[in-house]
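Co-fold these.
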Amino acid sequence: MYRVSDTQNYAFNLIVRKYQERLYWQIRKIVINHDDADDVVQNTFLKVWGGLQNFREDSQLYTWLYRIATNEALTFLKRKKTKFFLPLIDVEQQLSNSIESDPYFDGNELQAKLQKAIVRLPDKQKLVFNMKYFEEMKYEDMSKILGTSVGALKASYHHAVKKIEKFLEED
Amino acid sequence: MNDLEKFGPKLTKVGNKNPYSVPDGYFDSLPSRVQEYCKEQTTNAPQAKWFFVLKHQLTLAGGFCVILLIAFAGYHFAQQNGKINPYEKVDYIKIVEESGTEFDEVQLYEAFTNGNKKDTLKNTANDELIEYLLIDNIDNGALLNHSKDIKP
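Predicted complex below.
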């Protein structure tokens, strides 16, 4: 349906309505800020719109969408880091500081601390932790999205939990 | 979560509730905004300006021109240095202008010394000079070598 030009618009609209929330939250947990997440989700769907005709159905649609969303979010963060030529601005520190002052953050102190710990994780561990802890995704599904083996994902998750525990123990 | 209780006891206390929120009606308006955005981006796709298309070729051509310019400047400079400078000394020009039959060693000597250099011949009379040259069989070549030895 999405390959035929007549119905492509309609199909795309359906895809957006069905997956917008899941993709948005996946992105939001990476970029933290709502406005940034809004920009990234729109760029994600723009990429989806452009690649829909060539989608080969080797993987499930959602896996493909999730992969695009994840890459767009990580690229956004990388661009933010390299925007400033010198590493004078710590982007992770900025994100960490913005959590509590964010008008769209409704969590308590402990949840804020958890989010600050997640921001500090390396990208892969951050993704794995968010998918496993918040979305309770199966490792097999995660493996299809991230293209990493189940064993490696389990190890990533274990390391992420240890680091977060250590951070939560600090004052 | 059972594994988490074992390895992350503090984490289990936090819970996995999503602490973030969105503005009211955000997801209701998102599909239409996405559609608008996609339409806008595809219709206003930036036309590749000719400059950006030919950027590499222009860079190559520019580099080639610079090399040519440097080569031409080097050649021109070398040619300038190789040229014989116009004679400044009027005396030397006088030598060229004089014909061979009218020219004598006295004139040659005066031309090279230009009358400014101190030498013993300055105060010598012409007759004595001619006699000196004839007797000692001094020719132009000898005079030229002699003039080089005379210091100002």
